[in-house]
Amino acid sequence: MSTNANPIIAIASGKGGVGKTWLSITLAHLIARSGRKVLLVDGDIGLANVDVQLGLTPQKDIASALSGRHSLAEAVLHYEAGGFDIIAGRSGSASLASLAPDKLNQFIASLVDLQKNYDAVLLDLGAGVETQVRHLAAQAGRCIVVVTDEPTSLTDAYAFIKLMQGEAKAPLMEIAVNQAATQKEGETTFQALNRACMNFLNISPRLLGVIRRDGKVKDSIRRQTSLVAHAPGSTAATDAAAIAIKLMQR
To answer: In terms of CATH architecture, what is 8-249?
Structure first.
């Protein structure tokens, strides 16, 4: 899929409510539709919602794997409608931020072992900048930071990018602007974040794409189905497809 040997793509955000999980699901579906083998991992253990958005009721998940009841590989669930595999988190369980270092390292080791079987592994991280979230993101070859035009989204995204620079190995940082009124306004949102990164961090993350605001997204979430299945020709699906193509080209 890429010249980068690491197929893990972390999807992050400084704050919640920006559409990170929806984008993770949509990209997994789009990449899988191209014939590639894809694994979507819900890394937001305490507030997991990949399974909720897709109407799934997994019997095994990350939390039960970390408890020692089974391996992480045994928690893999195939999502037939999307043609990709999922490892669910568990809502209401202890969050990733509260994981003991040995448990986090156990999870990372299992994930690194699993990724050998896939062309792409999408890791839907929890929102925030906690050490455990950043350490997990650092395992990826690239990290997509999802932002909106809300000031708190931009400031929190900047904080995440800044702290990631302190990791021993930082992934390639890229930006996806979600819920933009227009393509131009999305680009303006990116430029605001990019200026801060250039002025204070001396780095310039790449704009991966802009996803325009689309009522079909909420419809698909309410129906607990992927937007690619519900409305493949919608504005948001088309914009997400352009991002998926970029991911597959590199």
So the answer is: 3-Layer(aba) Sandwich (3.40)
